[in-house]
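Sample A.
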Amino acid sequence: MNFPTSLSGYALLIGLGLIGVGCTNQNSQQSRNTAAVEQQQEYEVWQLKSIHDGDTLSVVKDNEELKIRFCGIDAPEKKKQFGIEARDHLRELVDIGNGELLIVPIEQDGYQSTVAEVYVKDSENTAIHLNMQMIRDGYAFWYYAHYHCPNQEGFILAEELARKEGLGIWNKP
């Protein structure tokens, strides 16, 4: 398999048989955490219906619809500072795969949403781990309350890097 080269030379093991590569260049909009989706991985292919905010969306497949809450992250609500920016950034990321999403369900929450890891295929047939990418680009926080989420160490590192680089919500004038 060919993996993108990381400028800093580090790779994150993000669990579930997926390998993420974090790029730490100055322009985070062009950096992507990517993952090779292995064939034995259990994911479901869904089509985007709508994006509610930076950590929640709805998907459809056949006659079924699911509300997806991103595992391990919390993005600002639309009415809060950076809320619209977070939603719009997620739209940009989802557009990379023309609205086709790879969903790895983790659990159901108390609101009947599916808590999941969400990926989008890029042009190199690798997958961007959207949960991690939203944190890395500074549009979401690591959300420790999702303790069943398998990529906590990667989320912590992604948030640390976004903070250090002053990206998105960490941009302090």
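Sample B, a different protein:
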Amino acid sequence: MVGRSKDKNETEPVAQIKFTILKDGTIVTDSDYLPNDVNERAHDAMDVLEQLLGNKRVMTKKPIPAKYAGKFKPRRVNIQTIE
């Protein structure tokens, strides 16, 4: 899935998110840097999928590259992660 930021100040407006739906309905997502507005929309979309499928998604947690550290704005803390 590809998203484009509407933030005029965003230096990397295009973002990609890979998601896989496993046989048991678990949603596994993986992405590199996501602009904050794309991140919000992606979470909202995944919330709907969680509700429809009845399962929680699993997000892979990666170290934040230094060039993104100042741009990153975490949205949630109660998400199951795989490290």
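Observation for Sample B: The helical segments are 36-53, 66-69.
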